[in-house]
Write a structure and sequence with these properties.
Length: 150
């Protein structure tokens, strides 16, 4: 993939609430819009991070659930609709049409994509990539990188 990237933030959180709060601070600092990918192994905290984004945008974080089976969830917020997609069960970008990808991008202020690396070739646009790694049972290293796109 072409484009430039720059690491914006790396921080270790020690609780689920700290992960949510980091996501809130990040969303408020950058006036988030567009695409944000969330990657990390199962249980890393991708959906927790998504809850923080929804909270920061004035939505109900209690409405946020993993979109694993639905593939796409949408949430209302003060700043517009937030799309929350799980690309884990997609076999690749060829399946994006089946989930209404173009329409999702048009109607949502922000689209959060868990397992975005599975459709990376379709993400040739400016975005933020969030990588969440287990450091220990309660610690997560969260690295946020700005991708400029093509």
């Amino acid at each position: 993939m072409s484009g430039t990237s720059s690491e914006m933030l790396q921080e270790v959180t020690t609780s689920e609430e700290a992960t949510i709060e980091l996501a809130c601070r990040f969303a408020e600092e950058v006036s988030l819009s567009g695409i944000l990918t969330l990657s990390g192994e199962l249980g890393a905290g991708k959906t927790r991070f998504a809850r923080g984004i929804v909270r920061a945008m004035g939505g109900s974080e209690r409405a946020v659930s993993s979109p694993t089976y639905a593939i796409v969830n949408e949430y209302d917020s003060a700043q517009g609709t937030i799309g929350h997609m799980d690309a884990y069960r997609l076999s690749g970008e060829d399946e994006l049409e089946t989930v209404g990808w173009d329409e999702l991008l048009e109607r949502c202020a922000v689209v959060l994509i868990e397992w975005g690396e599975r459709i990376e070739s379709a993400l040739d646009m400016p975005r933020y990539d969030v990588r969440i790694d287990h450091v220990s049972e309660h610690e997560r290293r969260i690295t946020i990188t700005r991708i400029e796109g093509l």
